[in-house]
């Protein structure tokens, strides 16, 4: 697409006389290249118009909806459920951070899982990065 408001310098056909030109004679060529890049730069910004903004949001809407439904809502629900005691047969009872205290102080399986995760992170991941 060429912007009709911007005009490029006219091109002259090359002749045998052009072989002996000095660097000063190519000023027009460098100006043409410079103006061409400026035109492209301006046209790139001119392609984004505010009246097209709703179309961009419309195309992004399915991705944001999926992110909200499959990532954000489950994370918030899991965080909310971590502060209650609930066995699916009785109504949830708010216990605050008691579940976390129980997990960190009285659960040997959690401590073993935490140790395995730390070991994997500190040893295996760097070795994998080095020896790939």
Q: What is this structure's SSE topology?
A:
Blueprint: H1 27-46, H2 53-81, E1 84-85, E2 93-94, H3 98-106, H4 108-131
Antiparallel strand pairs: 1-2
Keywords: Cell membrane, Membrane, Transmembrane, Transmembrane helix, Transport
Membrane topology: Multi-pass membrane protein
Transmembrane segments: 57-84
Order of H and E elements: HHEEHH
Radius of gyration in whole Å, from Cα? 33 Å
Largest sheet: 2 strands, antiparallel
Residue ranges: pLDDT <50 for 5 or more in a row?
Answer: none
Structural class: mainly alpha
Describe the protein.
The model has no long low-confidence stretch (mean pLDDT 81). This protein has a domain at 82-131. The chain has helices spanning 27-46, 53-81, 98-106, 108-131; strands at residues 84-85, 93-94. The protein contains four helices and two strands. Helix content is 62%, strand content 3%. Residues 1-30 are annotated as: Disordered. The chain crosses the membrane at residues 57-84.
